[in-house]
Amino acid sequence: MVDLTPHEALSGISGSISLVSWIFVLVPQLLENYQLGSADGVSLAFIIVWFIGDLANFFGAIWAGLVPTVIALAVYFIIADAVLLTQCLYYKRVNARQNLTADLTQSDTDNPEQPLLGRRPSDIGLPGSRRRSSVSIKRRDSSLPTPVLSTIPEEEGYVRPWVKNTICVVAVCAIGTAGWAIAWKAHLWVPTPEDSGADDLGENVGAEILGYLSALLYLGARIPQIVKNFRERSCEGLSLLFFILSLLGNLTYGGGILFHSVSKQYLLVNTPWLIGSLGTMFEDVLIFVQFHIYKKAAEEDSAVE
User: Fold this and answer.
1) Under 8 Å CB-to-CB from 11, ≥6 apart: which residues?
2) Where do transmembrane segments lie in this chain (predicted)?
3) Region label for 281, one of left (φ > 0), alpha (ψ between -120 and 50) or beta (otherwise)
4) At how many degrees (to 10) do helices 154-185 and 6-24 cross?
5) Which residue segment(s) compose the domain that 290 sits in?
6) Is residue 223, in this structure, part of any structural domain at all?
7) pTM, full prediction
8) Residue 182 pLDDT > 60, yes or no?
């Protein structure tokens, strides 16, 4: 068996954890949209740009002749992106029809003789009355099923998401570590020579260009979501676990590269992937800050009401 150095073991474990993170990263948002019956919290531009970034990553992997597992993972990303994009478009179309029907019904029943006191606040059109929280209002309608989670006391509701997210992160790390250990023992994973790929700099310009393009797309993808959250002063409809797994995946992906080697040539070869992974971590942290600020503001608004 080939000797395994500590930094190669850390590189392999980090890469394995990153792989597991990316396999499950979109699942929380898919479930969030399904449970709400809406995708209003997700920026379509975010998903579309991310999808294009994965396409660039896929073609770059083929062009560079990377190992089949990397190409297979790139294909999985494209399929998962397409599923999330299709779900978002479906819910936006369905909700647009429902809103149009509701507006038409309201216009038929609303007339100048109707007393102002008999109207709902949303009928009057007060500033800020049409917020993303309208999804929750629709869920409280008697004609719609009430989610099971709505019966949980409010105090428990604040604890459960953090417990769930922590368990998920620990599980992903455990699965990734166990997967790497099994692959190592079964000789399915072997350390890569530290100087591997260092001589490839400049030999495949096309693949390198696609690598930088995908990195820029990944960096730019989160900007529309950040702007959307800022404009609406809300992160409602977004899955916090989605961004936690994204942060974990990017952190461990970059760690897998850096643990392997920090030689100048090696880092130059992997610069696009380091930019795409470590660079987006700052944007994920900004979204975490938005989650905290807007949740606190919503709690204060509820206390005033």
Assistant:
1) 255, 256, 257, 259, 260
2) 12-31, 43-64, 70-91, 167-189, 209-227, 239-259, 271-289
3) alpha
4) 130
5) 6-107+123-304
6) yes
7) 0.78
8) yes
